[in-house]
Write a structure and sequence with these properties.
With 124 residues, this protein is of the alpha+beta class. It has one domain: Alpha-Beta Complex (Aspartate Aminotransferase, domain 1). The protein has three helices and five strands, in the order ααβββββα. It has a five-stranded antiparallel sheet with strand order 1-2-3-4-5. A hairpin with a 2-residue loop joins strand 1 and strand 2. Helix 1 packs antiparallel against helix 2 and helix 2 packs across helix 3. The radius of gyration is 14 Å and the shape is globular.
């Protein structure tokens, strides 16, 4: 099964609010950076371009978007709300009913792609 098909199947398996939320995150990620490739790693959807960019998963009580090099990103809109003490990664945790600032999220995805394209070493 191709990674994109596996991601579609994974999202469909989340039968509550997490499925549509994760589907929307996927749309936003691909709108922001169509050059990203979809992959399946660690039992999760992952998007890459010149290295890992982000992953997203449905957990028991939330949907999470994890930016692999998030600690190196500016996050001008303050979207990161989880994993703030991690050396490299940063996450966005969405609870049921929470609204994501979609333009800011697309900006963050583009920032992560630009960071990878620049080939800069991530903070550690």
């Amino acid at each position: 099964m191709e990674p994109s098909e596996r991601i579609t199947e994974y999202i469909a398996g989340l039968e509550d609010w997490r499925g549509p939320t994760l589907a929307r995150l996927r749309e936003l990620i691909l709108e922001a950076a169509p050059e990203l490739s979809e992959e399946w790693k660690w039992s999760s959807p992952v998007w890459s371009h010149k290295g890992l960019v982000c992953s997203a998963s449905g957990f028991k009580g939330h949907v999470g978007a994890n930016f692999v090099k998030g600690a190196s990103l500016e996050d001008r809109h303050g979207l990161f709300n989880s994993g703030l003490d991690a050396k490299a990664t940063r996450s966005i945790k969405l609870l049921e009913g929470e609204q994501l600032d979609e333009p800011a999220f697309r900006d963050l995805v583009r920032e992560a792609v630009t960071f990878n394209e620049a080939g800069v070493e991530a903070k550690s």
